[in-house]
Amino acid sequence: MSLHTLAPKPGFDRYTIQVGWNPHRSYFATVIDFAWDPATDPDTEPDTVRLGHHTAVLDPTEVLAAVEPYADIPPDLAAQLRADQAAHPPSPRHATPPAPPGRR
């Protein structure tokens, strides 16, 4: 697994922005504002991005596009994510989806 924490753009300093590769077959992206308190600021709910956690994302540019409004993207990050995937290929248990019931 890899995890890259990105520097937020101005105006998004409260956000934690992360992308990476999970060897369970997906790139992922997360944008979360951990400082938001719904009790003190109920009318200004922050943006939240969670990509690749429940469905597979197989192109690193997809997760980078999702976080681009919030973070500065290093120019070599897509290549680094591909290298992360190559270094940590999908685990054999997750490499091929199982056949639907009744099909072989």
Automatic annotation (TrEMBL):
This protein's name: Uncharacterized protein
Compositionally biased residues, Pro residues: 89-104
Region of interest (Disordered), ranges: 77-104
Lineage: superkingdom: Bacteria
Lineage of the organism: Bacteria, Bacillati, Actinomycetota, Actinomycetes, Micromonosporales
Low complexity biased stretches: 77-88
